[in-house]
Design goal:
Helices cover 28% and strands 25% of the residues. The chain is built from 18 helices and 44 strands. Strand 21 and strand 22 form a beta hairpin. Helix 2 crosses helix 7 and helix 14 crosses helix 15. It starts with a helix and ends in a 16-residue tail after the last strand.
């Protein structure tokens, strides 16, 4: 109000993250988080529409990051998002950010080029800023001649009047080039880094477009931000786009966009009702509209300027992917929803009811028609000078123009550079820039893009990083497809799934950042399918298994594997593993605490043909799942999740085929070998600084895990020996060998500081000895359900203990299940992580072999008859030490109707150990407070009947401390 008073009658409005303006009295911090990027989207859309472009990809590249967005007729918003690790529920423009900006720092780790994610920021900034900064993307473009110091703002040096320091950049690239030592010139090195940055930005755009079913080849790339124009043509080429739009205010378009934004107010009401009565929805929307409309009028908006958009948020029953449609007749809403759903996920769910998650309204007071003045200059501008630009692997002579000299209708063929006050635009070879009458720059590809780049099959440090990113991006796209299409809470909400790519031999190539215990063991499942189906696989076949003795982990983790064919042979495999909410067994949720044989844990699936030449074998699959002594309890849910896994795999198949089409089969195969070789070398380097060690870790059930690590004489290999580990157990804490291998892979991957994918190459320097018949290599029909979730955590702690690098974390997943014939639910609970040399453990986190998240309280209470009474940090549960172990958690769930509950946990009797004199963390506890007040203490693994009003309480363990507690000296 103080600022407004100083403006003498000028209205003061604030930009919101949802893309609308509001006055100071209604402006809240939660609505300002992404207000700058939101202004950029508004500016991009308004100016693009004025230029005649109706479908755009927004590409906003600044100094530290790149923000990308999608527009095809309406602004896309998210009502729940994560910003800087914090989940927020407030309407925001749908924006995806990636750490690739002009200030992103360039790295070479001995094998690969990397760009970011760290940034030089504004101070010290890039090396050329004259403040001693590191080499960055900006410096790379200066090295290539794409940035010309003479035409860049001269605000550097001690007096703030010097131009960019080109000589310092050349010297630093010369030094880096010598360190790389592979015969490349410094210009080739700089271009390699730019290629990687372009790949990162292209992958970000795929995240908000291709992954959602949009074909970007028919879109216009709207570039803005200070650095976007330098990379515009290259990013467009990476996405097979052929047109780029650059506004004269592109360098400051976020600020310009705020001036073009409308005043708006948004309201939303949750309903969670079946779609059947349009009138009731309209009534709810009308009430919201009145409230929002009154809010705008109170801000001084004339009533006649106000218009209202009404929307319904629809989803299939049992899913959480809601899509917005225009509120109207039910038939119209169904048609719009199905069209959008099919476009995004490639299939529908016929017969499944539609749920109205919410209705929302957006009340808009238009800021008026956006008009731009025509350019007075008709005469083509002449180049200011001729320069040299390095692009496409060689130097080119190129003209440099000032933007303000260009005339309407002027055409400039690349290569060329167009400089202006706030940005630089590079017109690459085979592209042409046209100046429109409105002074817009439109860049068009004038020659067809080459289908394949001749990069060869020999390892190249630039292409190694690009292929690393491409492989991981495919796995991430698979994961997003699975999350969005799955039925169960386990997969959709808790994200208890993993997706990965494998080569023709079944070796893990790349994965998304999913579940470590899945990823390290899935390759054994793929190899099982290869072994058992040799010569009989056909295109369109998909296989499913969960057999613990054939590469599986425990029965709820169901793996779906799809071979990728060309016309004649199998090229690759893709796989997805998801934890099904119930796979049968003696308890709902299929996590029985007292199982003695694998049959008691559910339906065992071993190399079953799920899809035969494109036909989903539903009848046969239902028969399998409902057979046996302990069949599944909700076969429709299992079938829905299996369909989602098939769809996720198909996404991976499609993307791998696109990669082969672009690069060629031999190149793709070669880089599958190269990424494994790179991971192998990274692990070998780490082994060189490790020492021999051993650790004996006791479990609550009296068993012991003994791990001995011996470093080879060459200091580049290691033997991990589990001899002395307890024999096969009569309970369910046996862990299949695949689980043990996953733990070994995880531990040695975490020791590598380089940003490499988790893949089979990490295991090549390691010899792992697991005695036959011990609890880590059990024989059929041993029970194994706890081995995957509990024993795996203890294996990890034993390995870290043998290496002496990390105290024990909570050492359990605290597996909690409840249900009956109607409901089945499963969750794992966080606890304290272990401390290490130089760092404390973290409080209440998922550790090591799991990184699933908890179901939102609202979703948990909506879907199940329970009440989450509290979820809190368990104070003082972390072990003391020079570095303190993380604290565990306390979780209380009240049951509102009778159900069976089970807990499968560890570290209830044996405390998580400390290291180097650090103290152990506290053990966990499980107990039930009955409705009448009685407390029933439960052991580490127990099953109990819950009555209405009973409260199940779980206190999770803390992590161990590191170093003597007397040396603790931090405030």
């Amino acid at each position: 109000e103080q600022v407004a008073a100083e403006l003498e009658g000028v209205r003061l409005l604030f930009m919101q993250s949802n893309g609308g303006l509001t006055d100071a009295r209604r402006f809240q911090g939660k609505d300002a988080i992404l207000s700058g990027p939101a202004g950029g989207i508004v500016g991009a859309v308004r100016t693009s529409l004025a230029a005649g472009f109706e479908r755009i990809i927004g590409f906003d590249m600044g100094g530290t990051s790149t923000d990308v967005s999608h527009y095809a007729g309406q602004f896309e918003r998210e009502f729940e998002t994560r910003v800087a690790g914090v989940r927020m529920r407030a309407p925001m423009m749908s924006i995806h950010s990636v750490a690739a900006g002009g200030g992103s720092i360039l790295h070479f780790d001995g094998a690969r080029y990397r760009v970011g994610p760290d940034s030089a920021g504004a101070n010290p900034g890039p090396a050329c800023y004259r403040r001693g900064g590191p080499l960055t993307v900006t410096d790379a473009n200066l090295m290539l001649g794409k940035i010309q110091p003479k035409y860049f703002p001269q605000v550097f040096g001690e007096d703030g009047k010097d131009e960019l320091d080109a000589e310092s950049v050349r010297q630093k690239f010369s030094t880096l080039t010598k360190a790389i030592g592979d015969g490349r010139s410094r210009e080739q090195v700089a271009e390699g880094f730019v290629q990687i940055a372009v790949g990162n930005m292209a992958n970000a755009i795929k995240h908000i477009s291709v992954q959602r079913g949009h074909d970007v080849t028919g879109y216009t790339l709207c570039c803005f931000g200070g650095a976007a124009g330098q990379h515009a043509c290259l990013v467009a080429d990476a996405l097979a786009m052929t047109r780029v739009f650059i506004h004269p205010y592109a360098g400051v378009l976020s600020a310009y966009g705020m001036g073009l934004a409308d005043q708006s107010a948004m309201r939303e009401q949750a309903l969670e009702s079946t779609l059947q009565d349009e009138a009731a929805l309209q009534d709810a929307a009308d009430k919201l509209a009145i409230d929002a409309r009154d809010s705008l009028i109170a801000q001084g908006v004339a009533p006649q300027r106000v218009r209202v958009l009404r929307r319904a948020h629809l989803k299939y029953e049992g899913t959480d992917t809601a899509l917005m449609v225009a509120l109207g007749p039910v038939a119209d809403m169904v048609n719009e929803f199905e069209a959008a759903y099919r476009k995004q996920f490639s299939f529908l769910m016929p017969g499944k009811p539609l749920i109205v998650e919410a209705v929302s309204v957006e009340v808009i007071a238009s800021g008026g028609v956006h008009e731009e003045q025509e350019l007075d200059r008709k005469k083509p501008g002449k180049p200011v000078e001729g320069i040299r630009v390095f692009t496409g692997g060689k130097w080119h002579a190129a003209p440099l123009y000032r933007r303000e000299d260009l005339g309407a209708g002027q055409r400039i063929d690349g290569p060329a550079v167009i400089a202006e006050a706030h940005a630089t635009t590079v017109v690459e070879p085979e592209w042409r820039a046209t100046v429109t009458p409105l002074n817009h720059l439109v860049l068009d590809r004038v020659q067809s893009r080459r289908a394949q780049t001749a990069i060869g099959t020999q390892i190249d440090p630039v292409m190694l990083e690009i292929f690393n990113s491409l492989y991981m991006s495919i796995a991430e796209q698979m994961g997003l497809r699975l999350q969005n299409t799955a039925y169960s809470v386990n997969i959709k909400e808790r994200l208890d799934f993993s997706c990965a790519l494998f080569d023709a031999e079944g070796s893990l190539i790349a994965n998304a950042p999913h579940m470590p215990v899945h990823l390290g063991s899935m390759g054994e499942s793929v190899k099982t399918v290869i072994r058992l189906n040799a010569g009989s696989m056909r295109p369109g076949n998909v296989y499913v298994l969960n057999a613990p003795y054939n590469g599986g982990t425990h029965l709820p983790d169901v793996t779906v594997i799809t071979p990728v064919f060309d016309s004649r042979q199998i090229l690759f495999y893709v796989g997805s593993r998801g934890h099904h909410a119930d796979i049968g067994g003696i308890t709902p949720g299929s996590m029985p605490p007292e199982s003695k044989a694998v049959e008691e844990e559910g339906v065992l699936i071993d190399n079953f043909l799920l899809v035969e030449q494109g036909r989903f074998r539903e009848k046969e699959t239902v028969a399998l799942l409902t057979s046996g002594k302990y069949p599944v309890r909700n076969v429709e849910q299992n079938i829905a999740d299996l369909r989602a896994q098939v769809a996720a795999n198909e996404k991976g198949v499609q993307e791998l085929r696109r990669m082969v089409e672009h690069f060629g089969l031999e190149v793709v195969r070669a880089y599958m070998r190269h990424v494994q070789d790179n991971a192998e070398e990274s692990v070998r380097r780490v082994i060189g600084v490790l020492k021999d060690g051993e650790f004996d870790l006791p479990l609550d059930n009296g068993a012991r895990i003994r791990a001995r690590i011996h470093i080879g004489e060459d200091r580049r290999s290691a033997r991990i020996d589990f001899s002395g580990t307890s024999a096969q157990l009569p309970d369910n804490f046996n862990a299949p060998a695949a689980v043990c291998m996953a733990a070994v892979l995880y531990v040695f991957r975490t020791l590598v500081e380089d940003d490499i994918p988790l893949n089979a190459g990490c295991l090549k320097p390691l010899e792992v000895l697991i005695p036959e018949g011990c609890m880590l290599r059990p024989r059929y029909p041993a029970a194994v359900v706890a081995g995957n979730v509990e024993t795996s955590q203890c294996i990890t702690d034993a390995l870290y203990g043998a290496l002496g690098v990390l105290a024990a974390s909570q050492g359990t997943m605290n597996n909690f299940t409840f249900g009956n014939e109607r409901y089945q639910y499963y969750e794992t609970l966080a606890g304290g992580s272990g401390a290490g040399p130089g760092f404390d453990g973290a409080d209440v986190v998922q550790t090591h072999m799991t990184n699933s998240r908890l179901t939102d309280p609202e979703v948990l209470e909506w879907r199940f008859p329970v009440l989450l009474e509290s979820f809190a940090i368990r104070d003082a549960s972390g072990g003391q030490g020079r570095w303190r172990g993380g604290h565990g958690a306390v979780r209380r769930i009240r049951f509102l109707e009778p159900m069976t509950a089970a807990i499968l946990s560890g570290r209830r009797l044996v405390r998580p150990h400390g290291l180097a004199g650090g103290e152990p963390g506290m053990t966990g506890r499980n107990y039930v407070i009955r409705a009448g007040g009685r407390r029933d203490e439960l052991g580490p693994f127990a099953q109990t009947e819950m009555a209405a009003g009973d409260v199940f309480v779980i206190e999770t363990p803390g992590g161990g401390g590191y170093g003597p507690a007397a040396e603790y000296n931090r405030t």
